[in-house]
Amino acid sequence: xxxxxxxxxxxxxxxxxxxxxxxxxxxxxxxxxxxxxxxxxxxxxxxxxxxxxxxxxxxxxxxxxxxxxxxxxxxxxxxxxxxxxxxxxxx
Length: 91
Prior knowledge:
The radius of gyration is 16 Å and the shape is globular. The protein has three helices and no strands. The chain has helices at about 15-20, 25-30, 65-90. The protein is mostly helical. The chain has one domain (about 15-90).
């Protein structure tokens, strides 16, 4: 996707971490990657400020230290891989 977008992969998808881990291949789907920061004047969609059920976690939590460490190693590798694949495909 060439357009900027918001992707909240670190938001819990199940009612708890235990049930989240019961989902097949969930760990494979979790992305340890740091994207580009949003500009200071970025307008977040209104839905992020509306009341939500308790089962829905807040998207405003900061990244954990473990997430930051894993992302620091994996993000450059993923960017390099994408660059190589892009060059091979001719785009």
